[in-house]
Every structure is written in C-alpha cells, then in structure tokens.
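Please, structure for the following, as tokens.
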Amino acid sequence: MKEEILINVTPREVRAAVVENGVAQEIHVERASRRGLIGNIYTGRLSRVLPGMQAAFIDVGLDRTAFLHASDIARSSSEDAPEREGGENIREFVQEGGELLVQVLKDPLGTKGARLTTYITIPSRYLVMLPNSDGVGVSARIEDEVERERLRTLTEQLAEDDADAGYIVRTAAEGAQFEALRADMIFLRKLRDAISESAARAEAGSLVHSDLLLPQRVLRDMLSPEIDRIRVDSQSVFESLRDFAEKFIPEMVPKIELYCEDRPLLDLYGIEDDIERALKRKVPLKSGGYIIFDQTEAMTTIDVNTGAFVGHRNLEETIFRTNLEAAVAIARQLRLRNLGGIIIID
C-alpha cells in the first residue's frame, strides 16, 4: 500500500490530506481566522454550576461559555470512594466563581460552546503524558503482545522518578528504542513544567497553552512507517517541517519534499473534488444511487437511496448492491468529514 501526505498552504488556510493508493482517506483544514481549539489548555472561571445537569459552564475567554460535565472532572485519590446512593453532586468538586485548568475536548458547534475536561493530556511523538495521574497504558492498535510488554516496561522504567504523571504509549511508538522514548519523556516534562508556570501566572479566562499548527500536528500524529513521503507546496512550511522532524523524528526528514510543480498539489489525486463533495449534503454513488448526510447538534443521520440505479434482477438485489456500495462510501465519508458522536444510517 502506497501512502503519502499532501500539505497545501495558502494565506487563508492550510489543508492536509492523507492519501492511500491515490485515494484521499483523511482531510484536515485549518483556517488562519479560525483555528481549531481541541487540545488547547485554558484557565477558566466557573460562571454557573447546574447540579440538575451535573454540569458547569465555564468562561475561558471564548465567544460562548464552554461546557464541563461532571464525568470530565478529575478526582483526587481521596475522592475515589464509592458513589453514595443518589450519585455524586457536581458541587462537591467545583463551585461558582472558582478557577480550573481545563482542556478543550470538542470544538464549539452551532449554538453549543466547546466541551472541556480537567483530565489534561499532553501529547508528543511517541507518548501522551497525563499530569497528576499514574500508570502506563499502551495503544490498543499495537497488537503484538511482546512489543506491548517491551514498550510498557521501558516506559515504566523511564517514569520511575516521576510519580506525578502517567503515560500512554502511542501507536507511533511501535519499534521505538529506549533513547527515543527517553527524549520524548524529557520533552513532555519540560512542556508540563512550562504549562504549570504559565497557568500559575494566567488570569481566569485566558489561554495557557495552544496545540501545534496543523503541519506540525500532521508530523506528530499521522506519520507511520507506511508513509512513503510528505509533500509540501510552501518553502517556509517545508523548512519548518524539516526543522521539526530533525528535532523529533529524524528518520522522517528524507521523506519530506518540497512540491514545486505548476499543477496545484491537491489536484494530483482529485482531492479538491473530494473536499467539495465532503461539504455537500448529497454524495453520489457510482451505480447511480446516492447518500444524504444531515448533521445536527445532536446527531448525524445518513440516508441511502437507490436513485437512478434500478438493478437487473429484482428489488432485493438492487437494494443489496446499493447498500454494499454505500457501506464503503459512508466509511470513507465519516473519515473525510471527521464525523463522530451518534450516527444513524437508514
């Protein structure tokens, strides 16, 4: 399987596409005027606590107050006692007017503000640090049990002198050696300390730490041994990516290429058409059928229709073939549109 990453840079936005065998599987867009908030860490002030919803609304300096559910509030070890009859009360953990260090889980959507958590996570290339936690976990996508145990043992050894943090070993760490994991952990500890210092000085409702820009996030989160090359059509971004890779992923430096052809980069595999289709409500199928996507704040509904496809034998076969084609198309569209939550397919 041939895989590559294409990064298109314009003054208004940056777009990145993950391509497998000439077909776009994932597309990420970051606009200069509206960067995503996921992963950002804020010092927030509790504006309202609603026991009836087991939730709180928090001012983090955005246009709308953000939402924090009781299940997303980290407990101290003394608070891990069994639940009492009737359940917990969110007022036991937070009070109106108080301040909290929070991280964005979901971007605002429609009239809903961002969703927050106090379970802070700090990712790097191979590890994710969980401050004020403990233990070591390994990504479920690393399936080899011998490799899982090796990575767990190495990470536990490295974490012995830091009782104030837990770690998750990421999928990209498969095959990583001791020194690479050690360098990652040192970087994460320095970043955690810098975030703690910034949080101590920050006023309520201010940004403490923002995640990397999209091109750097692509290198950190999406690179794998299967990626053959990363093509970038901006000289400045190309140089910044090489600098980033030399520091954190030196083995990937030769795979980063500057694209200088006249043809637009995202036209190479028809990715511009994929982006246009992903923005539309109706997605045509090759057979003549089509899929309808309707996204609301609560859920996404998907309707499959036979359309112009009338089949050859009988109704059952027509529906069966349409559903087979739609199943593949829906899976790809869910990745392209970055859809999650409740999804209902008719």
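Helices lie at 145-158, 178-201, 214-222, 235-248, 271-278, 315-337. The longest strand covers residues 41-50.
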